[in-house]
Amino acid sequence: MSECDILVLEDEAFIAMDIGMTLADAGYKNIAICHTVVEAMEQIDKGNPKIALLDFNLGKDATSVPVAERLSQSDVPVVFLSGYTEFTVEIPDGLSNAQRLAKPFRSAELVEQVERVLGGS
Amino acid sequence: MASIEGDRLKLTVRDSHDAHHRPIDTFFGSLAAERGRDAYCVILSGTGSDGSAGLKEIKAAGGFALVQESKGARFPGMPDSAVATGLVDFILPAGKIAGRLDEIIQHRWRLSKGDDADALKQEIEAALPRFAERLAEVAGNDFSDYKPGTLVRRIERRMTVLRLTDTEAFLNTLDDETEAQLLAQEFLIGVTQFFRDPEAFEALRTLAVDSLFASTESNIRIWVPGCSTGEEAYSLAMLMIEEMEARKDQRVVQVFGTDIDTPSLVAARYGLYSANSVGKLSEERLQNFFQLENGQYRAIPKLREMCVFAPHNLLQDPPFSRLDLISCRNLLIYLSAGLQRQVIPRFHFSLRGKGHLFLGPSESLAGEEGLFDVVDKTHRIFRKNPDARTTYSALLDAPRRPRALPHEKLMDEPRAEVSLDLSREASVQRDFLRSYAAPFALLSRTGDVLYLSEKMAEFARPSPGTSSTMLDAYLAPELRLAVRTALTEAKQTGEAQRIDNVMVAGAPRPRVFDVEVGPSGSEFILVLTEARAVDAADLGTAVEKRETANRDILETENIQLRKQLATTLQEYETFGQELKSTNEELMSMNEELQSSNEELETSREELQSINEELETVNAELQDNNRLLIRANSDLKNLFESTDLAVLFLDREFCVRNFTPSTATLFGIRSRDIGRPISDLSSRIDYPDLEEDAHKVDETLQSFEREVMVKATRQTFLLRIKPYRTTDNRLDGYVLSFIDITERKNYEEALKRNEETLARQYAELENLYDTTPVGISLVDRDLRYIRINESLAQINGIPREDHIGKTFKELLPDLEDDLRETYDWILETGKPVLNMAIEGETPAAPGETRHWIGDFYPVCQGEEVFAVGTCVREVTDQAKMMQRIQAQNAQQNLLLAELQHRVKNTLATISSISKMLLKGVDDPAVYQSRLDDRLGSISRTHDLLTEGGWTTTTFSEIVRTEAAPYQRGDQERVRQTGPELNLSAKQALAFGMAIHELMTNAAKYGALSVEGGHVVIGTSHDAIDEKNEVRIVWKEYNGPKIESEPGRKGFGSLVLERVLKVDLSGEVLIDYREEGLCFQVDFRLDDPDE
Predict the structure, then answer these.
(1) A-B C-beta contacts closer than 8 Å
(2) Fewest C-beta atoms under 10 Å: which of B220, B326, B484, B941?
(3) In whole angstroms, what is the distance from residue A18 CA to residue A24 CA?
């Protein structure tokens, strides 16, 4: 897998597929879909994406916070996908710039979010 | 001279120098001393006054005195002198004396024999009040309080004299005034002598006389009450004269001697004393103050002038006043203690300034010691205490009883008739005597012609010369000799004498008479009886005879005349003596007049003194009156102004007075004064009044009780006090009613409040002890003042061990935290509330506990003197709080997880629904497909829920999904291999995968035909840590698969991609000809994770 434009980190297979298909349908290419933090880190090692859509909770007590922190150091915009509301889970202070997208999301919403970040390219 | 000693008469030679020879007095004196009550004296004829003084002594000793009637005595001097003493028991003719003496002695002997004497004494003593009463009526002297001993003795003696043995009889004889006077006289016999107890007089001279002369009064007044015959008064007068001469003092000294015994006073006033009486006086005094008179001694005029004697009853008459000295010796001993107590204040009243009182050796002040100061105890000389209030007032004396009227007055009327008869008789006799009787005349003893009858007148031939009625110069000369002779004989014989044939020359012829002279009383009657029988013939013979006889007679007469001359000479001498004694009598009358004068003077002085007294008393009265008016007015104002109801009752419970407020309690008006209180309507119910009053009488203390007016429910405090008169006598009761209703109400309210308080206090105390809140109080030094059980338990130290200990000593662990708080409160006076405290106490060492404390200041004024603390144990609550916080966190975590899952599930379903939409145009088909998948997910969820969302078994998933395809006994889906526990994520993934496989098999594979079946095998390699499993799906007897299906549908997507991602495993799908074989290898999740 090579360098990607959009990094998707989502442990649920159906949701990851759906995001991939939705973005592909919207015309985006170079989409890297990862299911674990390790996969995501390997992908980032290859090059920073333009945007990262990160599922916050990755199951078995794992979160995508390490990935987000790493990306934010490189000023890569991050969108957290999460079933949690803002009241249930605190996002670490360093990641306050991160966007949030509540699950379940509508496809248009997802695309809109990505477009806003990437400036409609 | 004779005296008696024992039973022997003793003769002594008469002292030739003794001019005053009085053998009888001397003998009587010794007799009185020797025999006392058994002495009897008899005074017979004799000249002078010898015997009278001795008689007095005998009488004083209780003896008896008998005296010859002076009429029959040749020399009446001694009997008369004796009678004049007034002490003589019997005056009798000489012949009867012996008989009477015998009777008296016999009578006394009978009396004294056996028990009669004692019985009589008791009888007399019992009858004493009656004697006193009788004597008070008749004699005017009150003896009721005299000492009984003396009185009984004297009554007894008097009864002996009258030969009576019965007291009643004697009482009856006292109706006779003379007898009563005699008895009174008997009572009053005084024994006194000059300078009795010379030492006492000497003491008086040294101790009292100085101060008498030291006083500035112009005259010195001395009073001798009960002076008797005056010896004491004269003694004092002598003493005063001597002192005055020694001091050259010219002041007037008056000695008032008083007594109720008038005869004694007469004697005192005369001042004549027997040689025996003055025997004890020194020669010098005798010389200076007495002069000899008739063998007795009489006080010189100077002495008598100084003394004034007057009758006066010490007990009944107002006393003398302004005196400097009172000498009352041996009078009080006759008086009872009660009388003595009356007398002493009188003396106090009578004395002026610091006057002295001089009493007898065995007398005292009778309990009135406050009135006098003792000057000389031995000799009973006292000095008036001028500061002491005189308790005597003349006003308090009962008015003197008027003396009983003489009884004779009642006898007047019957006497008139008797005199009528008598006068008739007298006139007949007179007529007879004038007309028919022989000539007669009355002659005196001496021959004086006192009376001539009518016929006798012719025989009166007075001699020329000085006219005289003596028979020798008055009668006819023929009669003179014969009458004289007959008279002389009659006088001598006491019988009538007759001389016959006395011829008296007459006008026609001489007449012959028989001359008879006989006694008539003390005079003599001369009667001439004419001898008718003598005729003329006989006359010559008779004359002759007569002449012879006359010659004889003349001779005889001559001799008689000589004798007569001698007798006359003797009589002349007697007359001379009589003249002398008459002179003396006149002199004594003169003296008597003088003493009467003195008496009058005394009376005048007495009156004056009484007047002065009255003035004083009047002034005193006016003063008292003014004070009384003031007191009355004060009292009236007090009565009217006071709200206090006060009722004054007398001892019979009659109203004496009351204050107006009393009307609220009793229906009482001013006209009810004097009525019994029980007659008045009363609003209070109080039947015990009398009983309570008697209690007051007994205890003399005031008595209190509460009484109630039922109608108004008012309560009064009734206080009963004894009513005391000003002289502190109990005379009724004072009832005061004090309205204490309000006080009572207050008391009750107070009691109620007290009870409430006590209850509340108990409640608080109980609360304090039992409340689970710890409460304590500490002082400024942080020492415990009090603490309750709860706090003691919290502290883990016994309650009593706290008191007085400091906080630091008991709870050092908490000291640091709390010290600051306490200091702040003590400083600012503000409370600190809800302060959390954490620490350890000895109650649970090593355990940290929590409390909430409230600290508040306890102030006294501005200053905070203590700090109160309320502590609540909150250790359990703190722990619970921590637990709740932990639970909350857990819950939040669970909620987050739930949300995560739900949202993820929804997101997954959203994704599935999108994927299912691909290549489906018919909404109904889409609907069916979606329902189908959702049902599968739902079933897996059910299984997961049953397993608590942790694990579920693979076989359960297969059985659930296979259920629609199983047919009765025909097992179309068979499982082999070990059971596998799947995690939720794996279960959900497999749920969908098995559903897709089943659907596919039912549509295209083994389950689409009869006889086709599926075998699902599992294998578990649990040996190593990898925990790898393999699941193999194999279809048998289905339609032959000719090729791999071209289009990959939703099922393959699930089987190839989803399973691979969700299980992180390897998936192998082999479309074999005989049937589909699906194999997946993955690792089981560690169930602990």
Answers:
(1) 76
(2) B941
(3) 10
